[in-house]
Amino acid sequence: MLLKRLMLGAVLGIALAHPAVAGLLSTPSGSPHDDGYELLRQSKSRVLSAVGQDAYSTLAESTHAYDVLHYALDITVDIDGDSMFGQATITAASEEDGLDSLDLHLEGLEVDRILSGEDTLAFSRLNDTLKIDLGATYSTGDTFDVRVDYHGVPLYSTYVGGFDITSDVSFTFNEPIAARRWFPCFDEPRDKATLTMSAAVPPGYIVASNGLLIDVRSTDQYVVYTYEETHPIATYLISLAIDDYAVWSDWHFRAPGDSVEIIYYAHPWDSANAAISWDDTPNMVDFFASVFGPYPFDKYGMAEAPIFNGWGAMEHQTCTTYGHMLVNGGHSYDWIVAHELAHQWWGDWVTLLDWRHIWLNEGFATYGDALYVEHRDGDAAFRGRMQSFANTYFYEDNSIRYPIFDPPPGYLFGACEYEKGAWVLHMMRYIFDDDSLYFEAIRNYGDTYGGGVASTDDLQAEFEALYGDSLDWFFQQWIYQAGHPEFEISWTAQEVDQGPYEVEIVLHQVQEDSATSTPIFEMPAEILVIIPGEDSLVSFRFDSEYDTVYAMVDSMPTGVYLDPNTWLLHQVVSLTDVGDQTDYTSSACSIALLQNAPNPFSHSTTISYMVYGPADESRIPVTLSLYNIQGQHVRTLVDARQSHGPHTITWDGRDDRGRPVSSGVYFYRLEAPGHHHTRKIVLVH
C-alpha cells in the first residue's frame, strides 16, 4: 500500500542533517508485519466482519436488571455427533425491585426446559435472546436460580467462534460475543461470575478448562472433568479444550508455601516442540508478578488447539488456548506467550467495563510483551520492539485514523488498540520519570479493580493518585482524540563570539486535524544535537503548532535527532538543515551516523550515514567498521573515498570471512579525517 503522506520515521532513529538525505526515505519505514501482531489482530478482526459492530456495542450504562453470581455448567460432548447436551444453572441477584423476568443470550441451540427449583418456567425466544418468565417477583438483592436444559450442534466458525467439536480437537472461542453459542448467559464483560464447569467426554480425551481441576470420575460412557473457578470470570473468557493431550507442569512460587501450577496441554505428536516453545513461561510469570503484582489466579495453563486455523491464541482465564502453528520447537513466538500471559492480569483479572475500553486489555498485554523483552534482552531490544509497534500503528493510521476509545466498526482489534495502546502506557512511564512509582500505580490499579471491571477513567484516576496532578491533558489527546504528532523540523546553528554555537530548532506540528479530531499535541520530549565528539541531549516540552528549542554546544552540529531514546510516538515529515548562520568557511569534512534499522535485527539491517565535504573536494576517505563487545574487529563494511551526501550499507550478520556471528551487542564506527561516530547494534538469531 502506498502511503498518502511521506512519513519519515524519527522513531526509528533517523537523524537527518541535510536535505540530500531525503533520497534515503522515499519509501515507508515499516510494514504491517514488523511486530508480528498481525497474526493475532487479523484473526480477531475477522470476527468483527462476521458479527457486526452492533452485536457487541451494548454500553455499561445500559440497564441490566440482575447480577449473575455463578454459572454451573454441566456439558456432555458427543464427539461423534459433533453435538452437545447442556445443563446451565445460573445463580443471580436482582438489581431492581419487581424483577419477574430474565433475559439471557443463547444462539442456535435447542432449549428443552427451564426450571427454578421444581417449577417449570415459561420462556420465549427472539433471535439470540432467551426471555424467561421467572414465575415469581424478586426485590433488590434477592437471589434466585434458573436451570436451562438444552442440546444441539453448537454454532462455530473460525472468525466468529463458538464451540468446535471434532474427533481430533474440540475447543471454544468466545470473544467478543460467542459464549452464547454454547451456553446460556448474560454475554457482556461487565457481569463477571464464578464458575463450575463439568465436561463429560469419551474415554481417552482430556479436558482443559478454567480454574482448578477438582474431580475426575468415570461413567459407563464418559469421563467427567470438573473444574472450579472461584475468581469472577467474564463469559468471553470461559473455555473448553478437549484432546488426548500430553500433560506436564512447571511451577511459579508466589510466596513460601504458596505455589501456582503451570499446566501444559499439548497434542501428543507436538509435545516435544511445545516443551521447548513454552519453556520460558515460568520466567514470564515470575517477571510479570514482579511488575504487575502477584499472579492473581490459582493456576495457569496453556492448551494447544487449532484456534484461528492454528495461527492465533486467546487469553482464556487461567488457561490460554494456543494455536498449534505457533508451536515450532523454537522461541520465535515467545512474544505471543508473553502477550497472552499478561492478559491474565489485564483483561482477565481486571476486565474491561465494555468493549469501548478494549485498549485496556490489548494495550496492556502488548506493552507486557515489550516489558518482557526489556527484562530478558535488554534496553536496545526493548526500544526496537517499541519502534516496531510504532511502525505497525503508523501503517494502519495511514489508512484509517480513529481514537483509541470506542473504535469504529471493524477495528475493535486494530493497531490503535494494541500498538498505540502500548505506546500510551510507555509514554505515561516517561511522564512519571520514576519506574518504581509508575509500576506502583499499575499495581494499585490491579489491586483496586482486580476481580471486577474497569474503565479508562478508572485507570486515569489510579495514575493521577501517584502522579499528583491531573492527567486530563494526556488522556484527552492520546485516548479520546486521534492521531499523533507529525513534525516538520528545521534547525540552524550560529557561532557566538568565536565560542560555542547556538542551535535553534523549530518544530512545526502538521498533522491533519479537521475530519479526525487530531489535536495539537502537548508532551515532554528530548532532542539530540549531534556534534563531533560528544552529542548533546536537550529536554523540552512542546505544546503549540510551532515550538522553538535552543541549545548551546561546543562545536558546529552535524544534525539533530528527535526522541533518541524512543519515548514519544511521533513521525517526522521533513527535517531541514538551514545551515550554519555564521561566515563558516572551514575546509574540514564532517559526518553524521544514524541508528541502524531494524535494531535489534535477525537477518539483515541497514546503516545510513551522511558525508559532508567542502565544495572543492569531491570525495572524502571514509571507513565503517564493526566491533564486538570486547572491541575486536568483526567486519569492515566501507573503506573508500565517498562523495558528499547520504549513503547506506547493509550488514548481513557475517564477519569479514563470511561466517555468521553470534547473537549479541556490536558497535559500528564511522570514521573520516578528524571525525568519528559510534553506535550500538543488536543481533538476535
UniProtKB/TrEMBL annotation:
GO terms for biological process: peptide catabolic process; proteolysis. It is an enzyme of class 3 (hydrolase). This is Aminopeptidase N. GO terms for molecular function: alanyl aminopeptidase activity; metalloaminopeptidase activity; peptide binding; zinc ion binding. Its EC number is 3.4.11.2. Residues 622-672 form the FlgD/Vpr Ig-like domain. Belongs to the peptidase M1 family. It comes from the Bacteria. It comes from candidate division TA06 bacterium SM1_40. Residues 279-478 form the Peptidase M1 membrane alanine aminopeptidase domain. One of its GO terms (cellular component) is extracellular space. Residues 69-237 form the Aminopeptidase N-like N-terminal domain. It holds the Pfam family FlgD_ig. Residues 1-22 form the signal peptide. The keyword Hydrolase applies. CDD domains: M1_APN_like (cd09603). It catalyses: Release of an N-terminal amino acid, Xaa-|-Yaa- from a peptide, amide or arylamide. Xaa is preferably Ala, but may be most amino acids including Pro (slow action). When a terminal hydrophobic residue is followed by a prolyl residue, the two may be released as an intact Xaa-Pro dipeptide. Keywords: Aminopeptidase, Hydrolase, Metal-binding, Metalloprotease, Protease, Signal, Zinc. Its cofactor is Zn(2+).
